[in-house]
Amino acid sequence: MTEYQIALLKGDGIGPEIVESATAVLKKTGELSGFSLNFHDYLIGGIAIDETGVPLPQETIDGCLASDSVLLGAVGGPKWDNLPAAIRPEKGLLQIRSTLGLYTNLRPARLYPALAEKCMLRADLVADGFDLVIVRELTGGIYFGERGRRTGPYGPEAYDTECYSVMEIERIARVACSTAQKRRGKVTSVDKANVLESSRLWRETVHRIAEEYEGITVEDMLVDNTAQQLIRNPSQFDVIVTSNMFGDILSDEMSQLTGSIGMLPSASLGDGTRGLYEPIHGSAPKYAGTGRCNPIATILSGAMMLRYSLNQAEAADRIEAAVDQALRDGCRTRDIADDDNTILSCDEMTEAILQRL
Ligand code: IPM
Ligand code: MG
Q1: pLDDT tens across 133-145, in order?
Q2: 118: which DSSP letter?
Q3: Which atom of ligand 1 is nearest to the CA of 94?
Q4: The whole model's pTM is what?
């Protein structure tokens, strides 16, 4: 039987609960589909700072490198908010993305008909549904650019820099174009080319790369306009490709279209098959231990792991279908519930999905 080694980086806040849910679903899916998964826990984020003094211990890096893939919960919390930048929990997340060379972040979102009521938009705006994916560049841009403090003409100041190399833009553009070829063939490249030089390089590079791909169209959209188009008419989008920072912001906006940020998974990929899979939401410290969180984003991240890293597409379909069915059967955690729903805890929702595998 095929056996996979999976590194679990549970992290902080609700991280441990949602990762437990996802591993239960993955384990059972493996049993049903004929493969087995071995899970190995490693520290990241605030808990890693508490136990080792750094947000990403070397042991965690080595563990990830020795695994077929990585599943992550979330990092951060008020306890670590006032630490210096180099040892903040978030630093651990940025470092593992970068160390594993995961320059692509796929953030898909679609409207589940069962949750149409929870979508923040007027029903007529989403009558056609929507199904889009944000392809976010993940290891460059302002997140990794030069930054610092200095004294300027008006006294102390701070700066962060947005820098993209042609190489970095080319490789993310390739991912976007090949993703679009497998979908509806439309790439929207999002930038701020009316102001930023890095965006002008972004734009010309994306167009040059797109010429290598048959059957796709590329349109450019300024990020401010994209922010309004996403809520004006989300069905116009298929693949959105954008920088690290713009992708971070637009994907949170997008989450409100699906009803809850608790629904959205993500896959971070590089050139190899090993990826890092995590919900797009954070560690929600105030819900930690209350059983109130929604495990679906992490469970769907597990499905993405099966599809993109482990080449188990049918097993991934099985998980996605079970989530779909649970929603259609009215299973709801608090974040996606209406007044007339019974509210399920994180464990109960996990159980509901397990039963429908
Ligand atoms: C995300 C998060 C992270 C990011 C934070 C926690 C560093 O917001 O994955 O969207 O900005 O990339
Ligand atoms: Mg974010």
Answers
A1: 999 999 999 999 9
A2: G
A3: 7
A4: 0.95
244, part of any domain: yes
Q: Do 169 and 205 contact (CB within 8 A), yes or no?
A: yes
Distance 242 CA to ligand 2 centre (A): 14
**Torsion angle of the four alpha carbons 214, 217, 222, 228, in this order, in degrees rounded to the nearest 10:** -130
Q: How far is the centre of ligand 2, averaged over its atoms, from the C-alpha of 11 (Å)?
A: 16
Distance from C-alpha of 59 to C-alpha of 41, rounded to nearest angstrom: 11
Strand partners, 11: 74
User: Which DSSP category does 164 fall into?
Assistant: -
Ligand 1 neighbours, Cβ below 6 Å, are 90, 93-94, 248, 280, 282
Residues 249 and 314 in one domain: no
Residue 152 falls inside a structural domain: no
Nearest CA to 114 out of 315, 324, 357, 267 is that of 324
Cα angle at 281 between 275 and 283, to 5 degrees?
100
The number of residues in the chain equals 357
Q: For the CA atoms of 147, 150, 156, 157, what is the dihedral angle to 10 degrees?
A: -30
**Distance, CA 2 to ligand 2 centroid (Å)?**
34
How far apart are alpha carbons 13 and 21 in whole angstroms? 14
Domain of residue 134 covers 120-139+167-257
| Structural domains of the chain, count | 2
Asked whether residue 23 is domain-assigned, the answer is yes
Report the C-alpha gap between 243 and 290 in whole angstroms: 35
Nearest atom in ligand 1 to the alpha carbon of residue 76 is: 6
Yes or no: say if 130 and 109 are a contact pair by the CB < 8 Å rule: yes
Calculate what percentage of the chain has a pLDDT beyond 90.
Answer: 89
pLDDT tens track for 115-171 = 888 888 888 888 888 999 999 999 999 999 999 999 999 999 999 999 999 999 999
pLDDT at 123: 87
Question: Closest ligand to 252 CA?
Answer: 2
How do strand 265-269 and strand 104-110 relate by DSSP bridges? antiparallel
In 3D space, the residue among 270, 342, 239 whose CA is nearest the CA of residue 100 turns out to be 270
